[in-house]
Amino acid sequence: MGVKWTPEQESAIMSPKDSNLGAQTLLVAAAAGSGKTAVLVERIITRLKDMDNPLSVQELMVVTFTKAAAAEMSARIGVALAKAMEATDDKVLQACLERQLNLLPSAHISTLHSFCQWVIRSYFYKLDIPPTARIGNEAEMALLKQEVLENLLQEAYEHNEYGIFDLSDFFSDDKSDAGLQDKVLSLYEFAMSQSNPDGWMRRAVEPYKDAQNQDLRDTLWGSAMWDEQQAEINRIAERLELMEPLLESPVGPKKWDKVYQEQLAALAQLKGAQTWSDMVDVCRNLDTFTKASFTSLGKALEKGEVDGALADEFKSLGSQNKDSLKGMKNGLFHIDEAVLQQQFVDQYPLIHNLVELTIAFHRAYNEAKKEQGIMDFSDLEHLCLALLVEPGTEDDPQPSEVALELQDTFKEIMVDEYQDTNGVQETIINLISHIDNRFYVGDVKQAIYSFRMADSSLFMHKYNTYGLENDAVERRIDLAKNFRSHENILTTTNFIFYQIMTQEAAELDYGEKESLIPGRIVEDAPANWVGGAVELHLLDTSDTNSSDESDIGANVNDTESIGDEPENNERELDFIIQKIKELHASKKQVQNPDGSFRQIQWRDFAVLRRSLAGWGTRAVAAMRQAGIPAVVNERDGYFEAQEIQLLLSLLQIIDNPEQDLPMAAVLHSGLVGLDANELGALRLTGEGSLWSLMPMYAEQAQDERLVQFLGHIERWRTLSRRHGVADLLWDVYETLDYVNYVGAMPNGLVRRANVMALYERAKGFESSGFRGLFRFLRFVESLRDSNQDMAVANVVTEADDVVRLMTIHKSKGLEFPVVFLSGVQKKFNTMDFNSPLLVDKNAGIGLKGYYPDIRVSYPSMPWLYCKSVKSDAMKAEEQRILYVALTRARDKLFLTGYINKEIKKEKGIGAHIKNAALTQTQALGVDLIKAGNSYLHWLLIAFARHLDGGGPLRNSIELEGAINFDLLDRQCKVKVEIHDGSLYGDLDYKADVDETTINTVRALGKVNDVELPEEIVQRFAFTYPNLVASKTTAKISVSELKRRFAERDAEAVSATDVSMQQKPVISCDITENTTGENAILDTSIPTISETELADSVFGRKPMAIADAEEIVTGAQWGTLMHEAMQWLPVKKYTQKSMTDMLDSLQAEGKFSDEERGLLSDRSLYGFFNSDLGQRFIASKRVERELPFSMLFDGNRVYPDVENGERLFLQGIIDTAFVEDDQWILVDYKTDRVKSGDELVHRYKIQMDLYQEALETLTGMPVKASYIYSFRLHEAVLL
Fold it and tell me: In angstroms, rounded to a whole number, what is the distance separating the alpha carbons of residues 1048 and 1195?
């Protein structure tokens, strides 16, 4: 049975066939769980099956957000193509689909970065970049940025450029210019998300220059601030209109008429202000109109003269007006126009110089990357853009020849997760497509990646301008039906966002057309199905000893930590753990995607949180202690992991042992094991660092641990100077058995993976060309300082039966039967808004004002405007993040947090709940929505209006009066419970083992006392009958075969040496120039052959005094010489012509500059000039690098295998040439040997195999076999 598509899905799949147009651009606004990926795949298959308008998969470009999504998309298309082939009997269509299936691996289904990489590779010759350019890793690029910026600043200081001293004075402190560096990098990163970074930055400076000659109201910021002031005045007027009938009612609060009259007078004054100066005069005197207060109505209420509900509503509206008037009095409009104009004059030089410095950094960074032949990810987009934009049209991009070629190549451009694109990506898509062949899929309500510079306004513009009619060239189709979540979860989500998501407050009006429509049906649900009402559980911490500063109604500028107190977090966590255990123990049922039901498992639970920092690891530990298997997938926290902190401390003291803090950490850890008393005794031994005191203390205390540790540190310090960080780390791991040490700790698998990840990071650091322990530690420090932490290693798969803890961002695209959204009371992160430099795409650059004499900054008008724009955008995105969180649950949704006594106060959240409950319009007021600074704030003001669920909230603020006005989706089931927080918080769980299990275990006898059944004994004693076959390889190389023959020879020799069988073998060296009785045996180290020593790092001279050819290992030099013999033409040479030919091969790209320098021209010329070389040149048939494969008797290698068993042998013959109708076999060697006999001894088996293979495969005999030694410069006949 085929899939039943909704009409909207059908239109998205078939368009433009359901219109009168031949082509169409579509924007598919796909709500959460609406099957957008399935629709996208089906549209692709439908296009490929269309025989009337044939299309190849290579003519489609499908852009996804991640590589994983691209791989999944490609796999889905492959499966769909295979199913379509099976479903049709049309041979022509089958052949067409089969061809598309074969072409699928080469289709352009990728991230935009991968597509840009393909474009650059295809047209690199049009760019000024080396063809060998590669993408640098994160470590490499971070270090290069730092290096380039430091050099640039150094030059600026030396030549007094870019007003550098003023910039440094403003942005940095007395210790360093790190503040200035941070601002340059942040401005650079933001600008790189624009299609013309330098142009955008210079345009952002222009308003400062223009403002110096403009009327204040005509400036960018003055105009915006005036409009905002007028909007607030209009809100005051609207409230006064609502207050008037309340006051005039027979049972209205007439005693408060003075409040109303004062506010009416204030409104008249504000509306009469026509200029900035007028508005300043009015705002300075607004306190005149806020003196009247809401006096008590006690007796009037008791007598029934005043209706309590009307009084509450009047007071709520009047209080909001008072707050607005007080805000105006203390706001921007109490500052004189001339003062504000002077700010622009003062700020222009700073802004101009900062932008020019950032542009200079952009140029210098590009030059450094070009010099090193590397690119970063932003380069991929901008280099691709450079190829696609016609030169000279950067401000209004027009397609270049390359873009026009790509327009002809791709018949349709499909973009998944379109809401997460940025300006650069949008420009690229527009340049390679036409106005009627784009297919965008996304959901602006799930645009949550602004921190990655995504620009949701691109989606919003199309959403608001594309037509809904079938024949629109640019057409919008809405997919609103959700097939993931239960109906009640969807209606509750709608109920919340109908109220809080508005155009003015959140950039989008959430109406019925944006709402989620239930598409999943739950039929015949069992009585113990987990589903039901959406539950909000709040812990009242008013009576606990914790801080009362978790007021969720506190000012938005309060520190981010408010609402995130550790003690209250423990209480909330305790509640979640108990609820999960309760649901699991009661064996609740969940519904499968196919509609069937099954018992709930641990993996059906997910705990989501806005941020896991400082909470996730603790939560997992508590859950495991409570018997709940859990795992956290944190975005960061790697460098805070105990095992990594200890390793970094150890590396710090290896680099500089005079650092007491990391030294104390290592000494106190399990690596050394000093307790607090011993550390104290060490400290009291004398003056100086712990390192300087350690030898004396170790001798006095006779502490072998310290003696051993001192030896390790000295050896590691030497190793760190001679080898790389990766080698040093590996030596630490082996010496301390560190990997197994951390593996034995709780959560050992993750810890082991973390430790190995640090080793891999060190290898990556060095592969980027960076060296040195100090520089590696500095790199790690820079990552930590810039919040570029690594993710903790993940060792859990989707199939594992564990509870998952993750951030909301990480959960996007996933679904879980039961979801807990925790920490809803946590404040939004507004720390970035405290920066003296704020940047926004539309608001430009906002810089704080600055008094250089006293070094004090202050909020300037541009900075306040930029902050206002960014704050609004942040809250709009937080609403979208909340939307994503609520739509992850399939069957059941829990919301958890904590509150305190502030909910009952007249101000703050209590007042907001009352104002919301009394609001009679569908959407809440914009000021009420924008006052929200946590998810809980929005949940409370929304749920306060729910008839049943809002009861506990309305009771908590003692709200009087009925709230019977109609709201959309008010019939949703919501359950709000407020718990006593003091009953939770004890996380000292004990394993749940019942007495029956304990008694059963006690009754068991010792294992050795139990007689096992015969069948079990036989199974444990079973021996595989074909052991020889299990150790026999079916395929073998010549090198492996040679080694096997050598082992057999060694076994034969040792079997005849009776004395060697009777005594332990001691590897020894006999000192030179000693014989007979005076021979000295050195048994201190194992014997190492000269070849092994010569080819090792220890056998080579230091690079400073080594010859060029000695710097490289023997194996590497041998490979180079073999390659030279493969590429050199077979002809006579002179010494000069040989050098010229090798230079020519280098120019062709056969060798790099470094490799060319290592080749020995003399040795190669020596071969061609030798007798063997002359015979080689004279031959009429020459084979070089001749691969062969053959079967031969397995008994020759493995004597115990059955007769008839054959092995598959593979190898490559260096050179063979024909002489007198017979083969001359030649193998090149570069071994360090003293005579040809050594080569014969080492390689005779190999050469015999080559001879046998050559004769078998060609039927021509081998006349002679030679080994040519480039070390000895002679041919050795075997």
Answer: 12
Peptide bond into 253 cis (omega under 30): no
Contacts of 943 (CB under 8 A, 6+ apart): 496, 536, 949, 950, 953, 974, 976
Which long-range contacts link 712-716 to residues 24+ away (Cβ below 8 Å)? Answer: 712/736, 713/653, 713/654, 713/657, 716/654
Q: What DSSP string runs through 32-66?
A: TTS-HHHHHHHHHHHHHH-SSS---GGGEEEEESS
Q: Which DSSP helix (H) or strand (E) runs through 751?
A: helix 748-767
- DSSP letter (8 states) at residue 254: G
- Overall average pLDDT of the 4-31 stretch: 90
CA 1244 to CA 1237: how far, in whole Å? 10
Provide the pLDDT confidence category of residue 308 given band limits of 50, 70 and 90. confident
Which of 509, 444, 521, 508 lies closest to 482 in space, CA to CA? Answer: 521
Vertex 1129: Cα angle to 1123 and 1135 (nearest 5): 90
- Number of Cβ within 10 Å of residue 1112's Cβ equals 18
Q: What's 29's DSSP letter?
A: E
Mean pLDDT value of segment 982-990: 77
Distance between CA 897 and CA 551 in Å, rounded? Answer: 12
Measured between alpha carbons, how far is 1042 from 1156 in angstroms, rounded to an integer?
A: 32
DSSP 498: H
Residue spans of alpha helices (H) in 586-683 = 616-625, 642-655, 660-668, 676-683
Q: Angle at CA 354, nearest 5°, toward 348 and 357?
A: 135
Mean pLDDT of the chain: 83
Give 848-896 as a DSSP string: -EEETTTTEEE--HHHHHHHHHHHHHHHHHHHHHHHHHHTTEEEEEEEE
pLDDT of residue 635: 54
The count of other CB atoms within 10 Å of the CB of residue 543 is 11
For helices 748-767 and 773-785, angle between their N-to-C axes, nearest 10 degrees: 120
Answer yes or no: are the C-beta atoms of 412 and 59 closer than 8 Å. Answer: yes
How big, in percent rounded to 5, are the helix, strand and coil portions of the chain? 55, 15, 35
1213 has which bridge partners? 1186
pLDDT digits (tens, 9 = 90+) for 635-688: 556 777 788 889 999 999 999 999 999 999 999 988 888 888 888 988 888 888
Evaluate if pTM is beyond 0.85. no
Residue ranges of alpha helices (H) inside 128-256 are 138-159, 164-171, 178-191, 197-211, 220-248
pLDDT at 592 over 70: yes
User: Is-contact 629 740, C-beta < 8 A?
Assistant: no
**CA-to-CA dists, residue 779 to 81, 175, 369, angstroms:** 48, 20, 18
CA dihedral defined by 580, 586, 587, 590, rounded to 10 degrees? -60
Q: 452 pLDDT exceeds 50?
A: yes
DSSP state of 166: H
Q: Nearest 5°: phi and psi at 499?
A: -90, -35
* Residues 650, 671 contacting (CB under 8 angstroms): yes
**Pair 1119, 1155: CB distance under 8 Å:** no
Residue 990 is predicted with a pLDDT of 59
Return the CA Rg of the chain: 39
Residue 226 or 1068, more confident: 226
Condensed to tens digits (0 to 9), the pLDDT of residues 836-853 reads 999 998 889 999 888 877
Residue 977, H or E segment: strand 974-980
Cα(560)–Cα(564) distance, integer angstroms: 8
Residue whose C-alpha is closest to residue 496's, from 482, 506, 484, 481? 506
Q: Cβ-count burial of 1088 within 10 angstroms (0-12 exposed, 13-18 middle, 19+ buried)? A: middle
Highest mean pLDDT among 127-136, 308-317, 768-777: 308-317
Q: What is the pLDDT of residues 1191-1208, one digit of tens each?
A: 777 777 677 666 777 777
